[in-house]
Every structure is written in C-alpha cells, then in structure tokens.
Amino acid sequence: QVHVVESGGGFVQPGGSLTLSCAASGNIGSFRSMGWYRQSPGKEREWVATISERDGTNYAHSVRGRFVLSRNSALNTMSLQMTSLRPEDTATYYCNIVRLNAQRMAEIYWGLGTQVTVSS
After folding, report:
1. Of 5-9, 26-30, 90-94, where does mean pLDDT reach its minimum?
2. Cα–Cα distances in Å, from 27 out to 2, 52, 62, 99?
C-alpha cells in the first residue's frame, strides 16, 4: 500500500551538486529500511545508500564522502544530497522502501526513478 515517487533529478556539470527526494504515500507501517539505488545505461542496478532501523546509514564506496542520505520519518520522505558529482554518477536513481507487514514479511517498493546526468 506504499507508493513511492522520486524527484530532483536533472542535469549537472561535473563537480556540481544535486539533491534527490523520495516521497512515500501514507503510513509505511513498520519501517525497515529506505535507500537509493541507481542504474546506468547498459549496466545493472547498483546500491547507493541505505538507512535502516537497525544498521543506520550506509553508503557504497563509490559515493561515500560525497553523498548524504537523510530521512524525515514524520513525513515519510527521504533525500539524497549529492556533491562533487562525477560523470560516472550518471544514472537513473531509484528510491527503495522496505517495510514489514503484519506477518513481519518484507514488502519492497520502488519508485519509477529520476534521471541524473553529470556532464560538461
């Protein structure tokens, strides 16, 4: 029952900054994790960053120190602040939300993605 929508993508020059946002509809129930994944043209989707109830916030090595993940639990929104962007950061970025249902089984939700293009 969760609808996920990303926003904030766009075009940015190398070294620039961009902030992505993710909004989840309604109450996500028992929160497990929220995160960002990305998929570059011709490549498989890769994990970027995740925040979870137990493990806190984690980042992929490729973005560590450049990206900052934050969450507004009250509003069920999440942002990814990206700085020092590189051409290899070019990808479609997807918001991922995982929650536990009444049976404590994981439910996984994805947004449709927002495009980030880093180029001169």
Report:
1. 26-30
2. 8, 16, 32, 10
> Per residue in 9-65, pLDDT tens?
999 999 999 999 999 887 666 778 999 999 998 899 999 999 998 889 999 999 999
Farthest-apart Cα atoms in the chain, separation: 49
pLDDT tier at 76, thresholds 50, 70, 90: confident
Residue 117 has, within 13 A of its CA and on its CB side, a CA count of 6
Please name the amino acid found at residue 7: S
68: β partners: 81
Helix (H), strand (E), coil (C) string for the chain: CCCEEEECCEEECCCCCEEEEEEECCCCCEEEEEEEEEECCCCCCEEEEEEECCCEEEECCCCCCCEEEEEECCCCEEEEEECCCCHHHCEEEEEEEEEECCCCCEEEEECCCEEEEECC
The C-alpha atoms of residue 33 and residue 104 are separated, in whole angstroms, by 14
The residue type of 75 is L
